[in-house]
Request: fold
Amino acid sequence: MKSSCKIITFLISTQLALGPNLSAALANERTPNKESITSPAEFLKQVQLEGESIFGPNGCAKLDDKGNVSYVSQTTKEAIENDEDSPSSVDCAARIAAYAPRYKKAQEVIKEFEKNQKAEDKIQNANCPNCDQSGQSLTGPVDPEHQCSDTEKASIQKQRDSNPQCSMTCELKGSLKKTLDQASFGILGGLVKSSNSCNTEKAGTSPFGCLADFITSLFSSLSSMCKAVWDGMVSAAKGVKNWVAGWFSSNKKVEEAATNAHPAFANMSDEEIKAAQKNPEKANQGLLQKIGKGLNFILENVVGLDTPVYSELWQCAKCGERLGAICKIAGVVGKDVIKNALLVWLGGKAIQGITKMASGALKVASSVGTKMLNMVNKTVLGRTAIKWGANLVAKISERSISGFRAFMATRIGKFSAIAANSSKKVLMKTISVSSTVAGTVFQTIDKVMMMPVKITVRAGRSVASQVRSIMGRSTLYSRTPILAAEEAAETGLRSIKDLPSNTLLQLEVPSPITPAMEKSKSFLSSKMKGKELKAFVEDIENATETTLQVSGSKAIEIETPMGSKFIKIENPESISKVHVFGDDASKAILRTQDGKVMLSQNGKIVKSFSNPEDLKKLDAILGKDIAAADQMALQEMKNTAELNGIKAQEPVASIEPKATDDFKVTTPKECGDIPISFSAMAR
Amino acid sequence: MNLLRTHTIHLFVFLVFSSLPFFSNSFAAKPSHNKPKSEPSAVREFAVNKKTMKLKALVPSGWEPVVDVMNTPLALLSKRGAQDLRSVIQIVPYGVTDSEDHFTKFRKDPEEYYAQKEEWLDQMNGEAISYEPFEEITQEGSTTYSIGIKYKNDLGQFLDRTFYISSKTKGLFFVKAVIPLDQEDDYSHEVNRVISSIRLEN
Reply:
């Protein structure tokens, strides 16, 4: 009962915090027939269509090369000048305002794709030397030019059948053998010892070396749990300096390995169990064979599904081409997608998703479209490109909001006087007065939009929901969602005493956007500047010591996905830490240097605590969560750095594990010899 | 309809791969409806990690132990349920005891766990149904930290629970128990019994 209350609280607060539109979008996203992989392409397509509807022949405005806007409809322009509050009068301007960041984003996405394409080509080339570098090879697993006659087909099939090397399992074994020296697979280590007609020395040396890469990834994810638990212990011991977030996260590897192995266990037949009880090693080999079958299944089905042309070509594919096809498919749909599909396959279910995604990707790749879609064909569908697409197109997702929030908790550094003007009015006036200024407006909005991208590139959510997320947010600049949000139930920050326990989730009280807050949004002011990514990254090591840079103002400015928010306070320089709740920062807990705690709601301090007893209670309730939030913030920054190709150095542990007489243990041989002292782990 | 599809796929896989040697019937194999003779619940001893460690654990009646398969030192598997899947308890011993209660000094992060699971579910085309709260239970000299999530993915619907068992005498363990939701009522109690039975043997 307790847990369901929590969940309801979380769901309700999430729904309200996100606003009805976005919540609805996310709800739609949960329908079973989602196709998420092509979302970067979809996003670009949407932006293109949206732009045409605004700036096209029947649109309400014109946009020149410099980004200047001129209105086609005099009525609209006049209406904006004369009647700012009429919904119809602001329609075109609002549409442009909503479109601008998306357009910029699309450009950015394409630019990034182009930028990363060279690196991507290189990776693909290493994985699949037979794939050419132009990206054309991604149009299908088999070369479309490779036609053959019926006689040739029969001959090719004969060659395939008579060659024991021509099997996915054989190739996997060879690849695995090659990678065994480099990675610890624990108990699975004996996997390739048995011999069959497949020559493992010969296998795995084919030009389709991506299998070796693939198999390393797959088996690493099933890596020795024994080793993983020890790695977790060691990293937890080293985590004294706050790098490792804590118990569950430091043991991520074992959690992951156990989770990955689960489907295969859950689907073991009675016969398999009996065989495994007799001979575990043989059972492990059975696992490899299953994986080989799964890969074959993917190949057969991807090729056959919805793409008769490839089905025909498939029969012309020689052994090497068939084996190599998995490399190409990995290039199209992503290695991790295949890996996860295979894990489901081990659980006895058909690989539905992968075939769907691959065929979707093939369709998109073979379609002839506009320049933008051509770009998509060439670049978006690459493995890394998808990742980049997801991160660039995405801003903040439902589930990464907590991460963002935590991140922001250490990112409160700026202050500013609160802009007195209604931002909405400023926006509309600016556009109606001068088209040159409009260009600046675009840039400013873009900066606002870009900031969360730079700091919340947490991967994981499906691209579809991330795209919806960005759409939901960008429409915040138009009127409708704001009005809708105003209708959301107003729920105040509950008093600390009422909080049933100490979880972060329960602090996530709904945060409706009020007109007052909307007015305080001063993103159009020149003071709002987008920080460079570099600045964030450089701060990583000192992040826990980040202090406020406050001088001479009566407010603290917080960057949020919804623009800047301000908290009015008498002595901003006394604040040592701010913890933000709600992605519009509508709730916050402020701590002062002398230990006081204040609660802020909608930009105002609503409660202060200085009584030592109260503070003690607060610490008990909030302490853990806030500490955890700091850890998440660090993780967030680390992720950001990594995703942007910047290597984040893990701080050297201040306490090195060293053996002590009273507690010297050595991990089992299977885990490698890791001398470790438990006393070193004490914080 | 789903059932039909599953059967079709199984049949297809069977036809395609039946010529392969060992394990060729993995996917064609249907759950056995002939009830095997179930042994009564009993605490049994296992030599795991290629016989480098010994541990004891309760094997509930009708469950089967598997040692050192898929890098799992000990896995206990229930009978197949309505979803055609087994409940699985994976047990990983650390090989040491926690004589100074060091586990208590580590920070426990439910948020990190949930985030990690959500991320994984995204990749698996799944979604969370609910979160199980973090719990810390001390009894008979052992502290068990647990957390979990209910989720659904292409494979089915599950209750997935992670346990860390810490004891000055019984040892340190990581345990994962994944129960298909249709078996939750039948096996939740069994999981708890198994958890409290696990101990290292010298």
The CA atoms of residues 486 and 514 of chain A lie 6 Å apart. Chain A has a mean pLDDT of 48. Chain A has 27 helices and ten strands.
